[in-house]
Amino acid sequence: MKKIITLFILVANILACSVTLAAPIKNIEILGLNVISRGTVLSYLPIEKGDNYNNQVSRQIIRALYKTNFFKDIEVSQETQILKIKLTENPHIKYIEVINYSNKVIQEKSLNQILKTRGLSQGKIFNKRQLDKLITQLKAVYTSKGYYDVIIAKTIKIDTQNRVGIELNISEGKVAKISSMKITGNHIFDENELLNLFEIGQADFFVINYFTEKDHYSKVALDAGIESMKSFYINAGYLDFKINEVKTDLSEDKQSISINLQISEGIEYKIGTIQFTGDLLNNSIEYLRKLLSFKKGDVFERKKMMQSLQAINDIFSNQGYAFSDVKVATLENTSAHTINLSIDIAPNKKVYINRITIVGNTRTQDEVIRREINIHEGSLYSNTELNESIEKIKRLGFFSDVKMQVSKLEGFKDKINLHFSVEEIQTGIFSIGLSHSNSTGASLNLGVQERNFLGTGNTLNLSLSNSKAARDISFYFSDPYFTQDRHSISYGVFSKKLDASELKLDEYKIDENGFSLGYSVPITKKIRIGADLRASKRDINCGTTLSDDHEPIQCASEDETELKLGLNWSNNTLNDFNFPTKGQKNSLNFSLALPVADFRYYKLDASHKSYYPLKNDLILSFKGNLGFAQGYDDKELPFFKRYYGGGSSSVRGFDFNSLGIKYIGSDKVKGGELSFLTSASVISPIKFIDDNKNMRISAFVDLGSISEKASGFDLYELRLSIGVAFSWLTPIGPLGFYAAKPLIKKSGDKIKTFDFTLGTSF
């Protein structure tokens, strides 16, 4: 009994003490604040005025405030029912600088995002743990890129206002280079073919490797290559393909690394049975089978399967079933090594266009864009028509970017809205002042050149230019939608004076005045044919050398008038006007100086451009021009109508108009009746510049020649050059630079290894 009484008294005393300690809080004092506000601290406290205070509450307060990471020291006490919280703030970041890092490893934009995520930016509270985590993260980035010797030194300075300055000095060291890279276990595909799937590997020829840096190790690139190899095997039907081991051996000095990939190819799978399920609508199974790029017994290739499913989906979406669903179920037969396919089709509902909206066009009229859209409000949805519409808008050359979004109309399952977003570029130039051209030299200009006049889509060129080489007064107008059927009309008048000696040609002057009229019609969505008529009168004055020695017959002629009929055909499937990435543009032009006037000659000109996407945003481009011209009715081709070559629009690396046969005893080129020009380029965005969508760089090979006679093509006259070029779509038009080195040249050729152009792009 005594023990029970003693225990009761003890518990009573503890409860009495507890009641004494748990006195209500009448006021809260917060001391030591410098940057953080009183309200911010109060918002984190687990108590408020009127609550009871005890040791447990004190611990809760300290724990809650430490969690904020705002403070490095916290003291809590109570005096006469006043809760006192004494705080020592963590310093705030005055600045943080990361220096001596290269964009090849980490770009500034990515670095700023990492700093923001870690809360390490100006004005934020300094957290040492987050700084240490940042350093660890940066080291991991460098290691993944092959920089195993990276050292990141930190310097922290705290000023009298409790602000911290942080400097991270990165010593990158050298990237580990791949000494060897091998793949073993392959029997079906050649090792070199597999190694070409990787961006990294053993060094290329040293000149090429200087630019590609192929031997620079990167775990990111290695992993990407492994995934490419997996896709390669699976797409080839080897579904059991495995990477057994990835072995990387780093040298002791961390300067070189060897890579060995051990793989198991497995067995090739072939297509088994193919069946169609679901709602085929009015499409027969035989018709749908023809859309497949494979049949039973063919090697199973996933890429072909996906392309075939898209082709089937397009059939339904082009009939208005915008949200049709085409799925394939695969059943693997491991014993027969076949894949059975079950293609299920769910068309869902037909969808109609409710509304088409266009945004971003501040100058271009809505109608100019709408007339390029193949479907209209109220019509059935068509995926193919919309894709073609986007390409047509891009081919206008008025916009740097064109996007389309589809949104469902609330409350209607069969209606959608289309939203086109465009980003306009400068399409016109009003010029007054001086300019420079590498063909005509310095000139005084006054004029308007506008491909989108007043936002109507029409072209207006009105110019007055005067230089040593040429004086040009001209007016030209073109309406590409003269009729609703996309018939186009163009007309213009001109007055030109030319001093050929300033163009590095022989000495003659031409004073020409005339007018032109053209008309074209569409044959298909991408093919046009047209005709134009050009009438002019020329006054030709030959220099002494030209009239006496070089062209005595033509210079003695009194021919003045010309009436020229032109017929043209064009086919354009490019996906963009300024920087296309795929498609072709072909044209054929025939012009005949009609016998009703003085001059008698004809010209046939063919041109070709094509673009093919490669890996890593690279584009392969081919260009070619073939020109053929002759006189008729016992008259020669006028010497001023001959072809000339060399310069930015021809074979770069050679001086402007410098190619071809020269007059005997002269350094002046004679020109020719046959022109052959071709070029191949690999084009790339400039990845080390953030805003690079209007810039491109390319490596090119140019080949061409000018033959004096159309029937006398001479391989000896071929010229070849290689080089690099840069193109920038500036607010005043495309600006280009190139540096070229002739590889095939002849004695007497005039070389020009660097030049710039305004108004042309790749």
UniProtKB/TrEMBL annotation:
Keyword Transmembrane on this protein? yes
Q: What is one process in the GO biological process aspect for this record?
A: Gram-negative-bacterium-type cell outer membrane assembly
Principal localization? Answer: membrane
Record-linked Pfam families: Omp85, POTRA
Which chain positions lie within coiled-coil regions?
none
- The protein's superkingdom reads Bacteria
Tell me the compartments it is located in. Cell outer membrane; Membrane
| Position of the signal peptide | 1-22
Record's function text: Part of the outer membrane protein assembly complex, which is involved in assembly and insertion of beta-barrel proteins into the outer membrane.
**What binding partners and quaternary form does the record give?**
Part of the Bam complex.
This chain belongs to the protein called: Outer membrane protein assembly factor BamA
Q: Native species of this protein?
A: Ruthia magnifica subsp. Calyptogena magnifica
Gene name of the record: bamA
